[in-house]
Amino acid sequence: MGDVAQDETSFYSNAEGYWRDVSPTVDGMLGGYGSISNIDINGSKAFLHKFLGEGDGKTGTGCALDCGAGIGRITKRLLLPLFHTVDLVDVTQEFLDKAKTYLEEDSKRVGNYFCSGLQDFVPESGRYDVIWIQWVIGHLTDEHLVDFLRRCQEALRPNGLIIIKDNMSYEGVVPDEVDSSVCRELPIVRSLVSRAGLRIIHEEQQMDFPKEIYQVHTLALR
Ligand SMILES: C[S@@+](CC[C@H](N)C(=O)[O-])C[C@H]1O[C@@H](n2cnc3c(N)ncnc32)[C@H](O)[C@@H]1O
User: Fold this and answer.
1) How far is the CA of 133 from the centre of ligand 1 (A)?
2) The pTM is what?
């Protein structure tokens, strides 16, 4: 990790402070890039469909966990249409409060709203078919990310999957002092995944995003 994380306490508390001031909207979740949400969700749908279904080795559709869920942008358009039950976890209580109305009728199928940092969160053992972790890994230190991924593995059902979808830097670790996060290059993310004892079973780059933003990659792990 870069210097930013040397003071771990302020790395986390600065991020919490940053998100507390962000408006609970799709645009807020995407740092002003609300317009890319459709492309993002459609790409994720196509990615996930490769694994879901009946039959040998297929991932079930009982329960999903949305990590760093915010107001539930992904829960609403990707996870609730595909899974019977969805749990949300986020460090910002205001976003989870907003999710209750943002998800409308389908909020009935939300199992739990957990207000917690992922660095402290222990997902229930054996509960989830899919654990979706998008645009939030940069808020965890290397150690916390590895430990969280290990706990996620424990929380999977048979044939379950952990999905990481996130920004990847072109080289090294790039700190963002504004939201108190880091952006890691893909080889570093892969090595943290492997340190967690997980295997990458599929990897894709999200296409058709604006040129000026980081490249976004999706990794399926188990
Ligand atoms: C860029 S937004 C992405 C939200 C959502 N994943 C999406 O794609 O619409 C980052 C989210 O991570 C949350 N967050 C930041 N640090 C976190 C942490 N340590 N643990 C859990 N959530 C965190 C923020 O509150 C915010 O909702």
Assistant:
1) 9
2) 0.97
